[in-house]
Amino acid sequence: MKEKIQELAEMIYATQKPRPDNVVPVAWKVFDATEIQYAIEAISDCHWTEWRFNAEFEKKLWEYLWIKYVVTTNSGSSANLLAFTALTAHELKDRRIQKGNEVITVAAGFPTTVNPIIQNWAVPVFVDIELETCEIDIEEIKKALSPKTKAIMIAHTLWNAFNVKAIREICDEHKLWLVEDNCDALGTKYNWEFTGTFWDISTVSFYPAHHITMWEGWVVMTNNVLLKKIIKSFRDWWRDCWCATGEDNSCNNRFGWQLGNLPKWFDHKYIYSRIWYNLKITDMQAAIGVAQLDKLEDYIALRKKNFQYYYDNFSKLGYDEYFHLPKSYPEVDASWFGFWLTLKPNQKFTREDMVMFLNENKIGTRLLFAWNYLKQPGFINYVEDYRVVWDLKNTDYIMENTFWIWIYQWITVANMDYVISKFKEFLDAR
Question: How many Cα neighbours within 13 Å face the side chain of 413?
Fold first, then answer.
């Protein structure tokens, strides 16, 4: 049976067509026949909800990152919502985040990092970023602190890393939760330790555009056993029971609980202690993730190599005259997600001129997420309770002058040479 599945997977993979060197899409899922084979195996197991592949994926990831608890979930929105909402749980007593508490974050980021703060009736406090690193400004964090501050929730930018040491010190001094959105930074290290491990809770993305994929899917991670229990409860229909799928009576007291106003001996599997939803993944998604994890180190190396190729060539050609090139802190070994460029002042062209030219030549580009989130229609129409520290001048500058190109692992030297040639053609014409 397994041999037939493998043969079928190889036949399906053989239908994938290579792309020409003069087409550089903004993203592409990178895989081979193994992902297809594992997904078919998961289907043939006939469990389909989280099962053996999910257990293997969680185990492999915590072994890679040296994290105690890994909980899969169906999307990045769900992961960040689970991570933040866990901090509102009654079990956390005086440290729980409540309505009206403040949470420091940035406007220069993806909405799913900010939205959980708003959805839990906390108050987002927006601070500015640094122009060259695109990471949160530490001095602005210090200005943002107030007696209402309970947490910091921010993301690493494009597989770079924020100043982990300084932020961790601020959190420890003021007893703040740190929620680390590691969406774009799997494989990045700060002082030789992986990002995603400096937090109370962190999240990682496996959307197709990211380092590795499992169709849609994320994880929520923590070293705190109480937070893990809370996260799983919120993820699994808000139930009080912590049995894994297909298990019964892990607590050895299934019919011995008496909670709320329920009758004595009520089945613990049907006691619900929170208001929430079902946010689990399928085992087919996890199967793809297992195959991808085996390639993670190779993918990281390829992305670093591609980043360096662009950086060396842009520097050699003198393009730092036109752009701020990507920069990270000395402590950071970045596993880059993209190669971003910020136009310097007083150029004879705009970002839109550059982006439109590249897209006309089949070179995909992206802006840096939602910059500035406060100016997005959704925020303007729905959010009333928030605070801004001083101004967001760098955020606004990047909103108007920054874009990025892709460096994912299937890009070839020919692809990159084509991109570089188009930059040269555009800039020489100016």
Answer: 3
Q: What pLDDT, on a 0 to 100 scale, did the predictor assign at position 12?
A: 87
Of the residues 90, 156, 174, 210, which is catalytic?
210
- Which of 140, 144, 145, 154 lies closest to 106 in space, CA to CA? 154
For domain 33-293, the CATH class is alpha beta
Q: Any idea where the domains of the chain sit in the sequence?
A: 33-293, 296-428
pLDDT per position as a tens digit, 301-349:
999 999 999 999 999 999 999 999 999 999 999 998 889 999 999 999 9
If we measure between CA atoms, which residue out of 289, 268, 293 comes closest to residue 217? 289
Instruction: Give the side-chain half-sphere CA count within 13 A for 93.
Output: 1
Helices (H), 223-366: 225-235, 283-293, 296-316, 351-360
Question: CB-based burial of residue 306 (10 Å sphere; 0-12 exposed, 13-18 middle, 19+ buried)?
Answer: buried
Name the DSSP class of 154.
E
Q: Can 210 be counted among the known catalytic residues?
A: yes
> Quick one: 1 exposed, middle or buried, by C-beta within 10 A (0-12, 13-18, 19+)?
exposed
Q: What is the pLDDT of residues 380-409, one digit of tens each?
A: 999 999 999 989 999 999 999 999 998 988
CATH of domain 296-428: 3.90.1150.10
Angle at CA of residue 59, ends 334 and 161, nearest 5°: 15
Contact 82, 279 (CB under 8 A): yes
Q: How far apart are CA 254 and CA 360, in angstroms?
A: 63
Would you tell me the crossing angle of helices 2-13 and 33-45 to the nearest 10 degrees? 140
Residue written as token pair 């990025």: 404
Residues 6+ apart with CB under 8 A from 287: 35, 38, 39, 41, 42, 53, 214
The closest alpha carbon to 222, from 71, 61, 97, belongs to 71
H or E stretch at 39? helix 33-45
Q: Which two tokens stand for residue 259?
A: 């909670």
The whole-angstrom separation of Cα 85 and Cα 96 is 10
Q: CA 336 to CA 127: how far, in whole Å? A: 24
